[in-house]
Design goal:
The chain is an alpha+beta fold and 173 residues long. It has a single domain, classed as Sandwich (Immunoglobulin-like), CATH 2.60.40. The protein is built from 4 helices and 12 strands; from the N terminus they run ααββββββββββαββα. Strands 1-2-3-6-7-10-9-8-11-12-4-5 form a 12-stranded antiparallel beta sheet, sandwiched between helices. Strand 4 and strand 5 form a beta hairpin. The longest helix has 13 residues. The radius of gyration is 15 Å and the shape is globular.
Length: 173
């Protein structure tokens, strides 16, 4: 299974919630640490932690709006080559062309670059800085803007984050 197919399967599993029966059907979920799940794939060797937001706020022109979004997920991926964790965010909508997505963790702000429905840091050093902040933090707020002009704010719990990342890194080490 390719990385893209694996991630799509992960999205499908998480979008149905954390029901025990569905979690048992997932052959590549290997752990759940509070608000974070850990998945693995063998070919190519990848391990990742993933979570969905605890809260999402959507607004246009400063007013709350109801919008339909796809799956909203924050990932940290480790590869079998021993590389450090790579951050990625699926916003559930196509981001405005050329827009930046911002991650805020306990008062520190980091920019992500976007393409389609995905966003990620620009360098390995940015990945490392965000990963370190996420391990120390309690919540992460990710803001973005859709191609239709909707501003989004997604709040992720970081409970279980460090344990999930340690598990994912160990499995791909």
């Amino acid at each position: 299974m390719t990385s893209w197919m694996t991630r799509a399967f992960t999205v499908a599993v998480l979008s149905f919630g954390a029901s025990a029966s569905l979690a048992q059907e997932s052959s590549n979920r290997v752990a759940t640490m509070t608000d974070w799940s850990v998945f693995t794939e063998e070919n190519p060797k990848e391990c990742w932690g993933v979570s969905s937001p605890k809260e999402s706020v959507n607004s246009r022109d400063g007013q709350p709006v109801s919008v339909r979004r796809g799956d909203i997920l924050l990932f940290v991926t480790y590869r079998g080559d021993g590389s450090a964790g790579e951050i990625s965010f699926a916003g559930g909508y196509p981001f405005a062309s050329g827009s930046k997505v911002t991650v805020q963790v306990d008062g520190n702000s980091y920019d992500l670059f976007s393409d389609g429905e995905w966003a990620w840091p620009g360098t390995k050093e940015d990945d490392a800085a965000i990963l370190a902040a996420l391990k120390k933090g309690s919540t992460a707020l990710i803001t973005g803007r859709s191609g239709k002009g909707t501003q989004t704010e997604d709040t992720f719990s970081l409970r279980g984050f460090t344990a999930a990342m340690e598990e994912a890194a160990k499995r791909c080490g």
